[in-house]
Write a structure and sequence with these properties.
single chain; about 210 residues
């Protein structure tokens, strides 16, 4: 095996991004989250703000039936009318994620990466979650918001991430354990030990003796 990829899905406030960052430092490999948006923008010439606007969420209340007919694999050409549509932006990111999986050892946070790479043998998919109370406490400390506001942010963020995942996976549920190799409770295990568990699982899954 020349390279491997770890995808990290996470509930808001569970520490998934922190775990992904620490895992990247521990393994000495890049961790892609917001960086993917910059890379996709540079590759296509589409303003990065467009990628930020649709980052794990759908624009508006729905995507038109016409756009829905665009396959979740076909990237349109720049001169085509719907080049900056939600679906084409998703397809651009998906193509970038697939190219990374073929060429680079890395960590990818969110972006439906577990689904996009579901048929790749060199991929480990992880879902990080924590009890609501732990997530609320984490969000309050990180964003300096009230308990009420933290609850609102968790509810709204998990809701739009869930809708995004459901839409681009043709009806799959974001939190379904079948989608993942590992599901970790970061409150029970601790975030640092989540890093160790995932690192150990790499050796188990790929039969490495390191």
């Amino acid at each position: 095996m020349d390279n491997y990829v770890i995808t990290i899905a996470r509930g808001f406030g569970s520490g998934g991004r922190e775990i992904a960052t620490k895992l990247g430092e521990h393994l000495g490999i890049p961790c892609y989250d917001r960086q993917l948006l910059t890379m996709a923008s540079e590759q296509t010439g589409i303003d990065e703000e467009v990628f930020i606007e649709v980052d794990e969420k759908l624009r508006g209340k729905y995507i038109s039936n016409f756009l829905r007919k665009i396959p979740f694999s076909m990237v349109l050409e720049p001169q085509e009318k719907d080049f900056v549509s939600d679906i084409n932006v998703f397809n651009i990111q998906a193509e970038l994620i697939r190219n990374l999986a073929k060429t680079e050892t890395c960590i990818i946070v969110g972006k439906c990466a577990d689904h996009i790479l579901k048929d790749y043998k060199n991929v480990i998919s992880v879902y990080i979650e924590a009890p609501r109370s732990a997530c609320v406490e984490s969000v309050m400390k990180k964003l300096y918001v009230s308990e009420e506001r933290a609850n609102q942010l968790i509810q709204s963020t998990d809701k739009y991430r869930g809708k995004y995942y459901n839409y681009y996976t043709n009806g799959k549920t974001w939190t379904n354990p079948i989608n993942y190799d590992l599901i970790l409770n970061s409150d029970r295990v601790t975030r640092d030990k989540c890093v160790k568990l995932i690192a150990n699982y790499i050796n188990i899954k790929f039969d490495r003796n390191e």
